[in-house]
């Protein structure tokens, strides 16, 4: 496994906070309560992202006691200290752990994994707040903002989003959200903005208020990554859905109030017919063809369709794809959902009209499309593209089974990017540019710049634009450049220059035509900006 993938997964998990001590396995080496608690914390911060909360394995190997006790403390210590070519980091030789910590963790993983508590509908309801009840919310837009060009910017380590006026580049408000806030999505009508934190807190921000702010919130579990709302005709802004990593489930809610209505567990069999107790919910999209959500269950490799018209007689379907499902988006027509099965190095395609798998396509190593990029290839017609973490390739897939049948669901072209460690790729229907970041590439020159291709001539080498240099930051932070996002009219591309919490960060706005820096947004409140979500583009799946 490349280091880039490990770095992405090794984010801290909020679940550790919620665990009580459990009795240790009698066959495992002894630990004091204090040691156990300390190790548990480290496990959630450093190990759970790859090995899973229950240690059943995902990106990393399974580490349950029947496996680890047989290996013994000395073997485990060597593995933790020196790592492995298969992707285990070298925790001791890299200087991250000292010898005592390595010994502690080797003993800890021989204990039974503590199981975090479940999270019921009642727990959710107890946490819910209608900050501004629906009856007291504005009945029309109360501000002068051009709402369609507002950007919601994730301030990752602040647990906030910045709402930025895309026209004036001014900050409208900084809104408190969940811990290590993850993504924003727009309601179908373009009024409500939904935000979810890693701690599974969901916030609704009402963009009609004089100063847009939170109107409702709920906690839907202990750890989460995804949120979406109903978009099918007649169902706009009716139902919201949030998926959680822990517990492994998703919940359907009333969209305007977040009142929880129904929980569905994703526990079950994998595509290889093995039981998995912890299939985390990754990307969720909202069908334009049917009143359905599409829900990625990461570890089972199954994509669920969830019909939201009758929650009492809930109709779901599970589409076998591949492991481990992560992120994805629609093709330009909105009919096909293309999503990464990252450890299989594949893109799965679901035909949302038929609710069936249309294809499983081999692409580069560890695809990570975000929502991907749709454009017209000069030779192959409508295509969708993904970059990835594991290598420099950008795979371009034909998406037009009607007009370009021979190319549909095939990699029709492959571009060479700056290197591995790419997280996001973006273009816009009005643009000829295809922008590719390399945020997690180990070479600072590469992680601080982006490659931009001319869609009309993809054989031409990309131009490399040094985005971090544009930002001209006062201190020497990491300055990783992440996630291109277009403005409403498609003539500007916004990038985050992402440094550590205590270092200056910025947003850089690039003129799409000239590919030169047009504006830099700096503000002491812009702490660790990462994802950016333009209201119109997010509402209408423009990417
Ligand atoms: Fe993300 C989307 C999970 C780390 C920025 N991220 C997603 C989605 C999932 C996910 C499942 C798709 C949601 C959807 O569409 O419904 N992300 C995870 C992880 O499990 C992971 C690897 C580790 C973790 O501990 O969370 C992880 N993600 C990160 C980051 O470190 C990033 C780069 C910075 C940050 O803000 O945390 C990051 N993820 C993003 C962004 C999107 C995203 C910006 C939405 C992209 C889009 O264009 O839609």
UniProtKB/TrEMBL annotation:
GO cellular component, as recorded: periplasmic space
Protein location: Periplasm
Keywords: Electron transport, Heme, Iron, Metal-binding, Oxidoreductase, Periplasm, Signal, Transport
Any one Pfam family match given in the protein's UniProt record, by short name: Cytochrome_CBB3
The protein's name: Nitrite reductase
EC top class, as a word: oxidoreductase
E.C. number(s) listed in UniProt: 1.7.2.1, 1.7.99.1
Gene3D superfamilies: C-terminal (heme d1) domain of cytochrome cd1-nitrite reductase, Cytochrome c-like domain
Catalytic activity: A + NH4(+) + H2O = hydroxylamine + AH2 + H(+); nitric oxide + Fe(III)-[cytochrome c] + H2O = Fe(II)-[cytochrome c] + nitrite + 2 H(+)
Subunit organization: Homodimer.
Molecular function GO labels: electron transfer activity; heme binding; hydroxylamine reductase activity; metal ion binding; nitrite reductase (NO-forming) activity
Cofactors, names only: heme c; heme
InterPro entries the UniProt entry points to: Cyt_c-like_dom, Cyt_c-like_dom_sf, Cyt_cd1_C_sf, Haem_d1_sf, Host-pathogen_enzymatic-act
Domain Cytochrome c: residue ranges: 34-113
């Amino acid at each position: 496994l490349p280091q880039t993938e490990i770095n992405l997964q090794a984010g801290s998990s909020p679940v550790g906070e919620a665990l009580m001590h459990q009795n240790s396995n009698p066959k495992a080496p002894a630990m004091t309560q204090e040691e156990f608690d300390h190790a548990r914390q480290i496990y959630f911060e450093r190990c759970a992202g790859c090995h899973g909360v229950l240690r059943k394995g995902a990106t990393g190997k399974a580490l349950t006691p029947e496996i680890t006790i047989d290996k013994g403390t000395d073997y485990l210590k060597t593995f933790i200290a020196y790592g492995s070519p298969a992707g285990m980091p070298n925790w001791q030789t890299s200087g991250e752990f000292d010898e005592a910590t390595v010994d502690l963790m080797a003993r800890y993983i021989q204990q039974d994994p503590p199981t975090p508590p479940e999270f019921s509908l009642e727990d959710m309801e107890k946490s819910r707040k209608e900050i501004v009840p629906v009856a007291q919310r504005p009945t029309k837009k109360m501000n002068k903002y051009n709402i369609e060009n507002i950007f919601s910017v994730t301030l990752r380590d602040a647990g906030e989003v910045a709402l930025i006026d895309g026209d004036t580049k001014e900050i409208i408000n900084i809104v408190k959200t969940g811990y290590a806030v993850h993504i924003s999505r727009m309601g179908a009508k373009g009024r409500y903005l939904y935000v979810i934190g890693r701690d599974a807190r969901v916030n609704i921000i009402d963009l009609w208020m004089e100063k847009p702010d939170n109107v409702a919130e709920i906690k839907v579990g202990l750890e989460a990554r995804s949120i979406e709302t109903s978009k099918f005709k007649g169902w706009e802004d009716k139902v919201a859905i949030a998926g959680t990593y822990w517990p492994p489930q998703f919940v359907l809610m009333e969209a305007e109030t977040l009142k929880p209505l129904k929980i569905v567990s994703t526990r079950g069999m994998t595509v290889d017919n093995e039981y998995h107790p912890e299939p985390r919910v990754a990307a969720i999209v909202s069908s334009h063809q049917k009143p359905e959500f599409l829900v990625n269950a990461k570890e089972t490799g199954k994509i669920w369709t969830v019909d939201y018209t009758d929650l009492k007689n809930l109709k779901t379907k599970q589409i076998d794809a591949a492991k481990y499902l992560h992120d994805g988006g629609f093709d330009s027509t909105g009919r096909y959902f293309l999503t990464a099965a990252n450890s299989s190095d594949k893109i799965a395609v679901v035909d949302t009209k038929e609710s069936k798998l249309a294809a499983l396509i081999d692409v580069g190593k560890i695809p990570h499309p975000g929502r991907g990029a749709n454009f017209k290839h000069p030779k192959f017609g409508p295509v969708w593209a993904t970059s990835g973490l594991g290598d420099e390739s950008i795979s371009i897939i034909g998406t037009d089974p009607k007009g370009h049948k021979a190319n549909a669901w095939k990699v029709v072209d492959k571009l060479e990017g700056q290197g591995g460690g790419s997280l996001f790729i973006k273009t816009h229907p009005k643009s000829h540019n295809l922008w590719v970041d390399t945020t997690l590439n180990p070479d600072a020159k590469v992680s601080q710049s982006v490659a931009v291709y001319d869609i009309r001539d993809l054989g031409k080498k990309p131009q490399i634009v040094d985005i971090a240099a544009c930002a001209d930051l006062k201190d020497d932070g990491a300055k990783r450049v992440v996630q291109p996002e277009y403005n409403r009219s498609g003539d500007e591309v916004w990038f985050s220059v992402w440094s550590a919490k205590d270092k200056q960060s910025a947003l850089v706005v690039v003129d799409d035509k000239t590919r030169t820096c047009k504006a830099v947004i700096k503000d002491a409140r812009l702490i660790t900006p990462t994802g950016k979500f333009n209201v119109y583009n997010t509402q209408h799946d423009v990417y």
